[in-house]
Amino acid sequence: MPSIAYVNGKFSPIEDAVVSVEDRGFQLGDGIYEVLRTYQGRLHAVEEHMRRLFRSLDAIGLKHAFTSAALEEIINDAVKRAGFTDSLVYLQITRGATKRAKVFPQAVPPTLVITVRKLELPTDAMRERGVAIMTADDIRWQRCDIKTVCLLPNVLASQRAAAAGCFEALFVEKDGTVNECASANVFIVASGVVVTPPLSTRILSGITREEVITLARKNGVPMEERRITLDDLLAADEVFLTGTTTEVLPVVKVNDRRIATGKPGPVTQRLHTLFRTLAD
Ligand code: PDD
Q1: Deepest in the core among 99, 104, 144, 222, taking most CB within 10 A?
Q2: 244 CA to middle of ligand 1, Å?
Q3: What pLDDT tens digit does each residue of the chain (280 aa) get?
Q4: Nearest to 117 by CA among 96, 77, 87, 73
Q5: Same domain membership, residue 95 and residue 41
Q6: Same domain for 131 and 239
Q7: Does 105 lie in the same domain as 75?
Q8: What 3-state DSSP class applies to 234?
Q9: Would you say the CB of residue 153 lies under 6 angstroms from ligand 1?
Q10: Number of domains in the chain
């Protein structure tokens, strides 16, 4: 089965799909996106993803006539046409295609792009041994809560991390405050308490982050949302990442420092098992 694309009403193989050179997403990064996945063909946490999508649209003042039900129908159609067991669904909405100008255009319809491809997950070895990550100065803008396609700082940090053999880049403020990774949220386990940075305009409200917080609380795992410094993280018993494409993934090395024993810890493993029970 081929990877599939939907652009403004039309399905095609992904390599045949095109948008205008005047699209504001292409020229100005004037758009937002969502990334969802399926488990055994079924979309995971679709309502939560739709809620966040509409929040992003509102936050950038993008006028549209989309409804959650209509978008879900197109996504489900695309997933069915592609036919993968585990699909990665990318959805992007931009402020349309028109003569380049920074002010909002009048009466220009938004561009809706959806792609579905086979999901590639971290390998079993990465889950069993844990991954290394690398810190990066958080040079992103002040509205990281909006899931915008303006991702150049994430691109540069991810590339630097990959070149150093690391799985992810961890954004840290000048004062040592840990925010999140380029494509995932971050958690630590310290003295038996699971800790993750609180929601703010400096991080994305991850759907997986929220699911893991809820799972921890339901299962009697002590859980706090509070500021974490890089020193806290380096001294933690466990560190893990959460995200649609990562689920719950242990981190065993940060820059050249080993976390605790350098092996994935029991709390991370338990939360991943609980997460899989919820998802499957
Ligand atoms: N990224 N933080 C950032 C900056 C992200 O880009 C993502 C997800 C997350 C995790 O969010 P969620 O649990 O809702 O997937 C946190 C997607 C996968 C991406 O950009 O490809």
Answers
A1: 144
A2: 7
A3: 589 999 999 999 999 999 999 999 999 999 999 999 999 999 999 999 999 999 999 999 999 999 999 999 999 999 999 999 899 999 999 999 999 999 999 999 999 999 999 999 999 999 999 999 999 999 999 999 999 999 999 999 999 999 999 999 999 999 999 999 999 999 999 999 999 999 999 999 999 999 999 999 999 999 999 999 999 999 999 999 999 999 999 999 999 999 999 999 999 999 999 999 988 7
A4: 87
A5: yes
A6: yes
A7: yes
A8: helix
A9: no
A10: 2
Burial (0-12, 13-18, 19+ Cβ within 10 Å), 71: buried
For this structure, is 10 an active site residue?
Answer: no
Do 131 and 106 fall within a single domain? Answer: no
Same-domain status, 12 and 98: yes
User: Is the C-beta atom of 185 inside 6 A of ligand 1?
Assistant: yes
Give the C-alpha separation, 58 to 69, whole Å.
Answer: 17
Pocket test for ligand 1, best of 48, 185, 278 (most atoms within 8 A of CB): 185
| The pLDDT value given to residue 30 | 98
If asked whether residues 88 and 216 sit together in one domain, one would say no
- Cβ 110 vs Cβ 94: under 8 Å: yes
Domain extent at residue 141? 124-279
Nearest Cα residue to atom 5 of ligand 1: 183
268, 189 Cβ separation under 8 angstroms: yes
Are 195 and 226 within 8 A, CB to CB? yes
β-bridge pairing 4-7 and 10-13: antiparallel
Contact 242, 122 (CB under 8 A): no
